[in-house]
Amino acid sequence: MIRTVVIDSDTLTRYGLSMLAGAHPDVEVVGETGSAAEAGELVARRQPDVVVIDVELADGNGLHLVRSLRDRYAQLGIVVMTSLDTDDVLFRALDHGASAFVVKTAPVVEVLGAIRHAAVAATSFTATGLLDALTRRREQETRFALSPRERQVLTLLRDGLSIPEIAGSIHISKSTAKTYVARLYDKLGASSRAQALVTALRTGLIDYEATPGA
């Protein structure tokens, strides 16, 4: 029996997963909540094998919750279930320590497969379309061909640093920092920071998560 806790702000999703579990004898929903704030106490109390977490919770970021639970429970299976079916969200789930990624529109067999995988292989990530997503990421990296320093500058731009702050952060001159930014704009086909970041986010060159403290 796979003891499962569901953390999703959508009542229908929680109800649907409970009904789904009831139809399959190897899965049992032992707790549910729509609140990120209640999730930690619920998991500690119910001690599930697997938690299913939505990316978008009403009172918090589901991926932050994934990271928090992974740091506390190394062998806990964590399934990220979301309506945001994009490569960026998939890779963010992977980076935050999820065991599986599944979209809410997926067939029942795929949802069950994600839960079962998470129960037996908590530290091994799986997702339908992962190979295709990896291929697209490699294609984007080849297309833009950013150097390690350019990637570093792009991340600092995402974190909101000005050109003087970027220069100070990575110990280069302001003129060199300005050159790196101009080169990034050229490679990304952008004329402003906003355009560059939109392109970089859309193509998976960076994710939405700012550096802690930024």
From TrEMBL:
Q: Where is the Response regulatory domain?
A: 3-119
Which protein, by its recorded name, is this?
Two component transcriptional regulator, LuxR family
> Where would I find the HTH luxR-type domain in this sequence?
139-204
Keyword annotations of the record = DNA-binding, Phosphoprotein, Transcription, Transcription regulation
Residue(s) carrying 4-aspartylphosphate: 54
Superkingdom in the source lineage: Bacteria
